[in-house]
Write a structure and sequence with these properties.
The chain is mainly alpha-helical. It is 76% helix and 0% strand. The chain is elongated and about 80 Å long.
Length: 393
């Protein structure tokens, strides 16, 4: 079968031109030719295949052309076969070569899965070799970006192993695992197995330890928001010590996307059981972050922050029809502050909070005015600014 595959590759229209392009990289004689690499990978001894796989990895590390050309030449099938080798070095070389082939190439992601890579990669996730295990997680993360692969990966048994890696992997392993889980979570049928694998606790632990403005925090909070849409997810988050505090910290220090995810998660909790979650959210100090979001958040975050503040006020939520947004917000702040600090001290706290909000609002408005002013600069000044930015790259 491999011989047929090789002959088909060589009969491919335009392949000789592609091969010539890659052969230029071996012209100095320090690297094997592309013909040698492909022949060794398909028909060579174990050592020859190992060297060839390492060469494929090297060639595809930064070159998108090499990824396309080598995949068209038929290297994917023998690399997938190497994942089943009894030699750990061969497995390592194969998984890293496949990882590089898949990066930034949608077609190769599909080819790799079609060649039967999912099963061997899931087996590698169970390896006692930490490097192999985490390399497999990185490969699954890359493959999971293709929408067609998401249901297949979700049904493969990879999810529970990825959750285990979020619990106990290295920092890079945890990052790759949570990114893979995020990709898989965008296919709705995968949410139930992610939840069943006990993902909420490990995700919160990761969120507590990571930088709140990072991409990892964005994906983690997005996953948590999706899981908290289920009753089991709400219950799991509510039982985790410091879980609500971690979300409150994101409200204060996260990126715009993370803050939107965090406020949405807290709102889902409070809407589901106001009596259970309201006091816990207040005790963790959510009010300053929520008030800042009403001024500086995305439109959705502003709306959800207002909704959550209404639920957090001491009295039952009342209709705000006919009340201006500023008057309603002022009423909510006084109501919450009085409950937390007592009526007299609460009034002072509310005044301080509202003063800070006014200052934030003024600063935000000034930034918006400055952005608008730049848009209306004379064309010659605008052109000069563009040149300055380009030359600084």
């Amino acid at each position: 079968m491999l011989q047929d595959l090789a002959m088909a590759s060589y009969s491919n229209t335009g392949f000789n031109q592609e091969l010539a392009y890659l052969e230029k990289q071996a012209a100095d004689g320090t690297q094997p030719s592309m013909q040698d690499v492909m022949w060794s990978l398909m028909f060579g001894t174990s050592d020859a295949r190992l060297r060839a796989a390492r060469e494929v990895r090297k060639l595809t590390k930064t070159s998108s052309k090499s990824r396309a050309y080598l995949a068209a030449a038929g290297v994917i099938m023998p690399l997938v076969a190497m994942l089943k080798s009894s030699c750990e070095e061969s497995k390592e070389a194969a998984v890293l070569a496949l990882l590089n082939l898949a990066v930034g190439n949608e077609r190769n992601k599909l080819r790799i899965v079609k060649a039967g890579a999912i099963g061997p990669l899931v087996e590698l996730l169970q390896s006692e070799n930490l490097f192999l295990k985490e390399s497999a997680a990185a490969a699954i993360y890359t493959l999971s970006a293709a929408s067609v692969n998401k249901p297949l990966l979700g049904a493969s048994g990879a999810i529970s192993l990825l959750v285990d890696m979020v619990k106990s992997g290295s920092l890079q392993g945890k990052v790759d695992a949570v990114m893979a889980l995020y990709n898989l979570s965008t296919y709705p049928d995968n949410l139930t197995p992610i939840l069943a694998a006990g993902a909420v606790g490990p995700l919160l632990a990761l969120l507590k330890g990571c930088k709140k403005s990072s991409k990892v925090a964005e994906k983690t909070t997005s996953l948590l928001k999706s899981l908290v849409a289920f009753e089991e997810g709400k219950s799991a988050l509510g039982k985790e010590e410091g879980g609500i505090l971690a979300l409150v910290e994101v409200l204060e220090d996260g990126s715009l996307r993370s803050r939107e995810n965090a406020v949405g998660t807290l709102l889902l909790l409070c809407e589901s059981n106001r009596c259970r979650y309201r006091q816990a959210i207040l005790q963790e100090g959510a009010i300053p972050g929520l008030l800042e979001l009403t001024v500086q958040g995305s439109p959705r975050a502003q709306q959800e922050a207002h909704s959550l503040l209404r639920l957090l006020r001491d009295s039952s939520p009342r209709s705000s029809r006919g009340t201006s947004p500023s008057a309603m917000l002022e009423s909510i702040v006084y109501d919450i502050a009085s409950h937390m600090d007592g009526e007299e001290q609460g009034t002072e706290t509310a005044r301080k909070i509202l003063t800070e909000m006014v200052q934030l609002s003024m600063e935000q408005n000034m930034r918006n005015l400055q952005k608008r002013a730049i848009l209306y600069l004379p064309s010659d000044l605008s052109h000069s600014s563009c040149l300055t930015e380009v030359s600084s790259k």
